[in-house]
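Quick one: structure tokens for this chain, please?
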Amino acid sequence: METGLESLFLSQENIDAFKYSPADGFVVCCEKFNANFPDNTNLRIIEAATGRAAAQFVWSRPAKESLKTFMWSPDESICLRMVQSEGPGQPNSIEVYRDSDFSQPAARIFARFPRKPKNKKEAPTFVTGKFDGFELCPLNVLVSPSESP
């Protein structure tokens, strides 16, 4: 991005949504979902240096919404991906990927939340919820006294 020279060429047709990761290591792109081919992996994470697909997913909602479902740490060591629910009444989830390894999530966080029981002796029940967004906390950066406002 900084040099203005082409370093990545995508030969993928019909890209409707496109964004770079924070350190320009990856490109996320998404095509419109085609109901005739419901298993088509229309959402891709592409390595910017090689053009290789690092991961592919099915995204059935509008393509522009897909970009909001990815979040990287500034150094790209962690990538979070919000996943659609698998069906009605099912929770959605957030997958956590580490060190650019998209072969399998390092962790999954499901939108199931505890509800306090009326009686303190009873165990809490869990209800299915839905994540509608997420944000990473900023890094703790120590500021020297001379730099403080």
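The helical segments are 63-66.
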